[in-house]
Write a structure and sequence with these properties.
This protein is α/β, with parallel strands linked by helices. It has 2 domains: 9-73 and 325-431, Aspartate Aminotransferase, domain 1 (Alpha-Beta Complex), CATH 3.90.1150; 75-323, Aspartate Aminotransferase, domain 2, CATH 3.40.640. The chain contains 15 helices and 14 strands. The longest helix is centred in the last third of the chain and has 22 residues, at 326-347. It is globular. The protein binds (4S)-4,5-diaminopentanoic acid. Residues 27, 29, 65, 148, 161-162, 215, 246, 404 line the site of (4S)-4,5-diaminopentanoic acid.
């Protein structure tokens, strides 16, 4: 059993952190506010496990919020970083890996004809929005309630993830004038999108969405929905932007867009292509991307963009996935995980809705269907918090919020899955 005591090193560090860091954390979702208690501090991570400063070893289903797709600290990626670091840390002038990464992304994602590297998913979506506005010469952006695209001013309107978890989906500090340029609709509502475009289609620069929303838990687009968005954009001269920060290179080489057969005009990527180091990218149609400075009038820049260490890590991770049959293996692991969760739900007579696609998942404590934010809000969050802590006590770490997706990695082997099955069964039984 693993339990955090008040005199633990984590508790001491958090006490210190509260005095020096807002809320004690460098990203709000880490603060455990939605589940109660305090975050633990991590000393190291390897494979499917993270090791806390108090000597606890936890099976990790957060996977650093997505990128640890091979597991933590994979040898090949560590070696690539070690080899690269000897040549310097940052150059601020082109390096060959930038070309290698751009060509790799283009090969994996055919809708990306040109791509630019940035340092985070937030930068990627922010740049997509500016580019879409510059290219179309229009101001309105359409997003979906519960979708989260990083902490971009224009997109912190009815946002998911930590913004939703902490009750601030419309962040303070975003000028009303800017928020007024963002229209938010319910996901999977075909009528709402038709109605909006019939009224304001000529003013809309872009629709931005997570094609598989994964910041209010995890739910899927219904058949025909992404096709309708594509059609509306084409019919009205707006751009379609897919935020594939979590799904890109995780659900398959071509992300959600390959899975659903829809080509967006622009795509935002992050995390996974950094292999654990800070990376993002955005790309798409060549005529749109060429609107970027220095070819075009939309300014976008970054001193550390295309950083050699981050790209060495990311390229190695992509190569490992591609040559090791990674995506097919992730699907097998996902299937085995789904079976164990469904069995545990039946054995403990728990009424819940479990969603999985590939190596991403979410358990809602409510009856289905869950197809948008309103449905996700029906989940019993107090029950989720009890379940979370019962799992954590027993050595299994799920994301500390009902509104975050879970992640599997190639390092989640039979031993981890068996241990998780037992823990989930027990936690469901005692948290009901
Ligand atoms: N859901 C967030 C990323 N999509 C979690 C990461 C964070 O905000 O720190």
């Amino acid at each position: 059993m693993t339990e955090q005591r008040n005199n633990s090193r984590s508790a001491t560090l958090f006490h210190q952190a509260l005095a020096a860091i807002p809320g004690g954390v460098n990203s709000p979702v880490r603060a455990f506010r939605a589940v109660g208690g305090q975050p633990f501090f991590v000393e190291s991570a390897s494979g499917a496990r993270i090791h806390t400063v108090d000597g606890l070893s936890l099976i990790d289903y957060v996977c650093t919020w997505g990128p640890a797709i091979l597991g933590h600290a994979p040898r090949a990626v560590l070696e690539a970083i070690r080899e690269t670091v000897g040549h310097g840390l940052s150059f601020g002038i082109p390096n060959p890996r930038e070309v290698d990464m751009a060509e790799s992304i283009k090969r994996f994602v055919p809708a990306v004809q040109k791509v630019r590297m940035v340092n985070s998913g937030t930068e990627a979506t922010m740049s997509c929005v500016r580019l879409a506005r510059g290219f179309t010469n229009r101001d309105l952006i359409v997003k979906f309630a519960g979708c989260y695209h990083g902490h971009v001013d224009s997109l912190l309107v009815k946002a998911g993830s930590g913004a939703l978890t902490n009750g601030e989906p419309d962040s303070a500090g975003v000028p009303c004038a800017l928020a007024a340029l963002t229209i938010t609709l319910p996901f999977n509502d075909k009528e709402a999108i038709r109605e909006l475009f019939s009224r304001r289609g000529r003013e809309i620069a872009a629709i931005i969405l997570e094609p598989i929303p994964a910041n209010a838990g995890l739910y899927l687009p219904e058949p025909g929905y992404l096709e309708l968005l594509r059609h509306m954009c084409d019919a009205h001269g707006a751009l379609l932007i897919f935020d594939e920060v979590m799904t890109g290179f995780r659900l398959g080489p071509g992300g959600a867009q390959e899975l659903f057969g829809i080509s967006p005009d622009l795509s935002a990527f992050g995390k996974v292509i950094g292999g654990g180091l800070p990376v993002g990218a955005f790309g798409g149609r060549a005529d749109v991307m060429d609107y970027l400075s220095p070819s075009g009038p939309v300014y976008q820049a970054g001193t550390l963009s295309g950083n050699p260490l981050a790209l060495a890590a990311g390229l190695t991770q992509l190569r490992e996935l591609e040559h090791g049959g990674g995506w097919a293996r992730l699907e097998q692991i996902g299937l085995a995980f789904e079976q164990l969760i469904r069995e545990a739900l039946v054995q403990t007579r728990t009424y819940a809705t479990f969603h999985r696609i590939g190596s991403m998942f979410c358990l809602y404590f409510c009856e289905g269907p869950v197809r948008n934010l309103d449905d996700a809000m029906r989940s019993d969050r107090a029950r989720f918090a009890r379940f979370f802590h019962e799992c954590l006590k027993r050595g299994v770490y799920f994301a500390p919020s009902q509104f975050e997706a879970g992640f599997l990695s190639l390092a989640h082997g039979e031993d981890e899955l068996e241990a998780t099955a037992r823990v989930v069964r027990e936690a469901l039984a005692v948290s009901g």
